[in-house]
Write a structure and sequence with these properties.
The chain is α/β, with parallel strands linked by helices. Helices cover 36% and strands 24% of the residues. It has a domain of 65 residues. The chain has a six-stranded mixed β-sheet with strand order 8-9-10-3-11-12, with helices on both faces. The chain has a four-stranded antiparallel β-sheet with strand order 2-1-4-5, with helices on one face. Strands 6-7 form a two-stranded antiparallel sheet. A hairpin with a 2-residue loop joins strand 4 and strand 5. Helix 4 packs across helix 5, helix 4 runs parallel beside helix 6 and helix 8 crosses helix 9. The structure holds adenosine-5'-triphosphate. The site of adenosine-5'-triphosphate (ATP) has 12 residues, from strand 2 and helix 2. It comes from Amycolatopsis methanolica 239.
């Protein structure tokens, strides 16, 4: 047998790594005695490692429902959600070991007021039984990453809204999640702070090679941050459009003045207007 032949016999078959996140035919229906609301219908989407996907859509089109379903907070009525090939939901039961690999940031930072910045950041590690020293070191490293070095001992009430969201992002990253899920994380911030946080989030996502699903109302924010922008249409929420955004990263704000950027924003806005 030739050496070459022997090699082909013994070599393990090469398997491609499963995608970071796979949604197949995901739907969600809310039922009450009075009414049934179909919030999501047939959402099928594959997100690869390190990708930043923005999700936009009119109010009530199901963005939050989608994110809560991805975060393991609300079971889908149908379809499959796989994180690196592992099923997040088993019927209406969530697999907690898959959930523990996710990081979630909401519009409200939801910090514990009686915990310092460092303790808030390290809380998920504490819940996993990490020792004091590991928690302190990781909190410091993350505080630095999100631009809060020196504020580790401060309390949430001493921070601005933007700083609180930075703490929430650091906390979500503390467990080195496979996937970062963000629902309007900067929705409550003023325009200037929001712009700065967009730049910061881009930097953090690139530095940590994070895979991100980012829900927003703001089309400019979605295009600035996204490698792809997924647009949902309302009642029931379904994917009406997916746009690639090819500008190289890191992007600075000047990219927003480029004609191509303006064209993408305009087209997405017109598509939203048509849904009125
Ligand atoms: N717990 C629930 N029970 C019943 N209906 C619900 C529930 N949660 C959401 N819905 C309905 O599902 C649809 C989608 O709501 P969702 O909050 O996901 O939209 P959204 O796109 O996030 O809206 P917004 O941008 O205003 O936050 C809406 O029609 C809403 O009324």
């Amino acid at each position: 047998m030739s050496a070459h032949h022997a090699e082909t016999l013994t070599a393990a078959p090469r398997q491609a790594a499963p995608p970071k996140l796979e949604l197949a035919g995901v739907g969600k229906e809310f039922r009450s005695k009075r009414a049934t609301t179909r919030a999501l219908h047939d959402i099928t989407l594959t997100i690869s490692d390190g990708e930043f996907v923005s999700v936009i859509g009119r109010s009530g089109c199901g963005k939050t429902t989608l994110l809560r379903t991805l975060a393991g907070l609300q079971s889908p009525s149908e379809g499959q959600i796989l994180v690196e090939g592992r099923s997040l939901w088993n019927g209406s039961r969530v697999d907690s070991s898959v959930v523990s690999e996710l990081g979630v940031v909401f519009q409200d930072a939801n910090l514990f007021p009686w915990y310092s910045v460092a303790d808030n950041i390290a809380l998920p590690l504490k819940l996993r039984g990490a020792g004091k020293r590991e928690r302190r070191e990781r909190a410091h490293e993350l505080a630095k990453l999100v631009g809060l070095a020196g504020f580790e001992k401060s309390y949430p009430r001493e921070l601005s809204g933007g700083m609180r969201q930075r703490v929430a992002i650091a906390r979500a990253l503390s467990t080195r999640p496979k996937l970062l899920l963000m629902d309007e994380p900067f929705g409550a911030l003023d325009a200037l702070t929001r712009e700065r946080m967009n730049a910061e989030l881009q930097r953090i996502a690139l530095a940590t090679k994070a895979t991100v699903v980012f829900v927003t109302h703001d089309i400019t924010e979605a295009v600035f941050l996204g490698d792809r922008v997924v647009q949902l249409s309302p009642r029931p929420g379904r994917i009406s459009e997916i746009r690639m955004v090819d500008f190289p990263k890191p992007r600075d704000f000047d990219v927003q003045t480029e004609p191509e950027f303006g064209r993408i924003v305009r087209e997405l806005r017109h598509a939203l207007d048509r849904q009125e």
